[in-house]
Amino acid sequence: MNTTSKPNPSRTVLVTGATGFIGSALVAQLLARGDSVVALSRNATKARRKLGARVQIVESLAQIAPSAVIDAVVNLAGEPLAGGPWSAARKQRFVDSRVQTTAQLIDLFERLASPPAVLVNGSAVGYYGERGDDTLDERDGPRDEFLSTLCQQWEAEARRADMLGVRVCLLRTGLVLGAGGGLLAPLLLSSRLGLGAVFADGRQWQPWIHIDDEIGLILHLIDHPTLSGPFNATSPEPVTQRELMDILATVLKRPRWLRVPASLLKLSGEMSVLFMVSQRVLPTFALESGYVFRYPALATALRQIIGR
Asked: Which residue ranges run through the membrane (predicted)?
């Protein structure tokens, strides 16, 4: 795990989306370094089983008293985008699960006697939309596309905390690679069976990040009080989707010969953008802030995850 200085001996950190792939890894690292964690979960029993007895579980932000001391908030809540067709109702749930939770956090900040010092708010590289081979960083703007609009709404709600004196960091995350969860799991399964496939022509850029760097960057943003604004949570060495599958096949020592044509991917409807969008995203602001990536290269990251 990338280590960062922590000026305070202990903080209390509120985490939403704490039982998810990223959230549970973050909670474990916060506890390991001596912080206290409050986790928001709709299912306290499930959260207790997953996160352990040391974490305070709340099923509603209303359970947090105005006198409570919360030093930092990491907001990762949001319904997963994969898993089925994007009906109008499901797309609205994508928006509501992100924007409404963030709005409830702002309400919490307003009623706390002392608001948190920092909000690290989830977002995604989807903010940039389809960009082909353009090289992108945090200074580039959004597009008029659903995922981009979703991220814009989410970030705009988070920025309301600025008016309360809360430092806001926006975490635009790519594909998070790690053991035991995330989108790597199905890719590993298919590749181990020799069924790893290139999607469409495979030339679309796929920004990615190792789970340790995702967590390391979040801690870096919490710990450095001069940092605010957008930060791309992506490796400084992006790859195309074809390169991703070829490197994975090489690490696993398995063949990679399949290709899923664009026409077949489009049968999944609007959700096909998850497989076909191209975003060559660089973490310029993270690097300029002094964050050092532990796993900048994909082959090294995959070998660490797979144990090769």
From this structure: 12-32, 169-189
